[in-house]
Amino acid sequence: MDAVQQEATARARELQRSWYGEPLGALFRRLIDDLGLNQARLAAVLGLSAPMLSQLMSGQRAKIGNPAVVQRVQALQDLAGQVADGSVSAGEATDRMDEIKNTQGGSVLSNSTQTTTSSGAPTVKRVVREIQSLLRSVSAAGDIIDAANALAPSHPELAEFLRVYGAGRTAEAVAHYEAHQN
Asked: For this protein, what is any one GO molecular function term (predicted)?
């Protein structure tokens, strides 16, 4: 790889870090390891071609263009955490991956946590993921961070909201939501 290609790859990985929290190669390798997948199966579950997955992992391509694929990545991350903590078995994980594969996006996939309470109200996690999905469908995480930085001097609370929901992890956004409800 020549110096120009190395620089482009490094820039793509840095963009991925700002948009997704880490380079996609690291994120996808962790999903492969945690869920016992190979690259072809991961690509199929996400709804990507194998070459596209490879380009994202290697840094030849920076952005996941389809918001539904981003949602599937988030759902797989949640599933991997449930497998790791033992709340979901390997067999259940396989079934859930099939469910994830078949989601069209637009609404957030539910997993083992209920999507509504017994009163019919949506759960905090569902509300948070809907907010994240909406923000991320409007703009890339890097652009949201830029907007947050521009707002920070005059509107620090709004800047924090944009950072947490637009570019942060779901767990951070849930904690923010719960802290600001009372």
From this structure: DNA binding
